[in-house]
Amino acid sequence: MHTDQPRKIKKAILPVAGFGTRFLPATKAQPKEMLPVVDKPVVQYLVEEAVASGIEEIIFVTGRGKRAIEDHFDVSYELEDTLVEKNRHDLLETVQKISSLARFSYVRQPVPLGDGHALLQAAHLVDDDESVLVIFGDCIYDSAVPASRQMIEAYEKYQAPIIGLSEVALEDVSKFGVIAGEQIGDKDWKVSRIVEKPEPAAAPSRAVAVGKYIITRDVFDTLATMNHGKSGEIRLADAFELMLEQGRPIYGRMLEGEWLDTGDKFNFLRATISLGLKHPEIGEKLRGYLKGLSL
How far is CA 225 from CA 110, 117, 161, 267, in A? Predict the structure, then answer.
C-alpha cells in the first residue's frame, strides 16, 4: 500500500448511451435512465449518490435520443416561472436543486462499441493523475453509506482500480461478471480474474460486479490500446483482464446496502416497490395496499 496521498476523487463518469431495448416500447422516445422509480428518474438517484459521496463533476457519455437527460439536469426557466406563479415553492425548490447538484458535462458516443469505448470518449476530461468513479445507469443502491462513498474508501485504501461487488444466489451468476480472487477481511477482494456470465457450476464465486467502478489512468491507457475485445467491442472487463495478466492489482469492494438493479422489468418494479415503501408521501398507503392484496 502507498503512503503518499492520491488526489481526491471528484469526478464521476455515467455512461448512458445504451438503447434500453428491454423496456420497449417505453424507451422508444425516452432514455431508459429517465424512467421514474417512484417520482425520480433512475439517473437522478445515481447522481445524488455520487454527490453525497463527494463528487463535484458529473460527465455523461450520451448517444442519440438522450437529450432528455441533458434537459433534466439543466435549468428550466419556464417551469420555474410557472411554479412561482402557482405559489408551489416546495416543488420549485425540488426542481432547482437538480441543476445545482454538480457541474455537468456531456460527451457523445457516436457508435455503440462497448462500455470501454464509452469511457474513452470521456478520457480527455480526466487529468493524468486523477482516478474517477464510474456508475452504469441501472445500479441504484439503498444504503446508509452511499455505495459510491464505500467505493472511494476502498480506493483510498488500495490506490488501485476498484470493482463494486454484491453477492448473488448461485443460480443468478450467469447474468453477471463474476470475480475470482482472494478475500481480504469481510468486504474486500484482491481480484485474480473476472469470468463473464459463467454457468453456475463453473462460477469461481458468488461475488458479481454491480456496475460501479473506480478506474485509474492505467485503465484508460489499457482501453486505448484495445482495438476490440473478445466480443468485437471495447469492454471494461477485457481491459481489467489484460491488466490482471500483466500483474497489475485490481480490488473489489463488497457493497453494504440493498442493491436495486433496474436493468430489467421485474427488478425495476422491485426497486419501485422497495423505494415506494420508504417514500414519506406514499409509503404507508402502499404498505396498506400490498397487505390487502389477495395473492
Answer: 19, 11, 18, 36
**Which tens digits make up the pLDDT trace of 216-225?**
999 999 999 9
**Secondary structure of the chain in HEC code, one letter for each residue:** CCCCCCCCCCEEEEECCCCCHHHCCCCCCCCHHHCEECCEEHHHHHHHHHHHCCCCEEEEEECCCCHHHHHHCCCCHHHHHHHHHCCCHHHHHHHHHHHCCCEEEEEECCCCCCHHHHHHCCHHHCCCCCCEEEECCCEEEECCCCHHHHHHHHHHHHCCCEEEEEECCHHHHHHCEEEEEEEECCCEEEEEEEEECCCHHHCCCCEEEEEEEEECHHHHHHHHHCCCCCCCCCCHHHHHHHHHHCCCCCEEEECCCEEEECCCHHHHHHHHHHHHHCCCCCHHHHHHHHHCCCC
State the pTM of this model: 0.93
Per the listing, cell 459510491 goes with 148
